[in-house]
Amino acid sequence: MAWENPANSELKRILESAKTIAVVGLSNNPDKTAYQISKIMQEQGYRIIPVNPTVDEVLGEKAYPSLKDIPDKIDIINVFRRPEYLQSVAKDAAETECRVFWAQQGIVNEEAYHYLTERDFTVIMDLCIKVVHSVLVK
Length: 138
Hints:
The protein has a five-stranded parallel β-sheet, with helices on both faces. Helices cover 33% and strands 18% of the residues.
């Protein structure tokens, strides 16, 4: 079975109820897409938690080396890593309380999708969280 994104109504519900987004692959380089999108989401009122073992802080928030190291509640795990790394990120995600996994536009890994859906995750792939937010959340 191929992967499938949730309906727009579910995406809207997720974005409207979420407060905290852990961003895997967020660097402190303002030229990177992950930084730009995370900054916009932060400006929209979300708390952004950077997940990157090579930085200490991004966008004024403490960075963590992995999802498992974050002590706070996470509502959405937003991933900016290449598709071949998604399975590893999915395994880390499964060890958190969060149950929403969002892979950015251009990022798809069916193995990770099936792994996560078997563990009761809502999985979104190949969609930009900022674009979906700007279209669905008024």
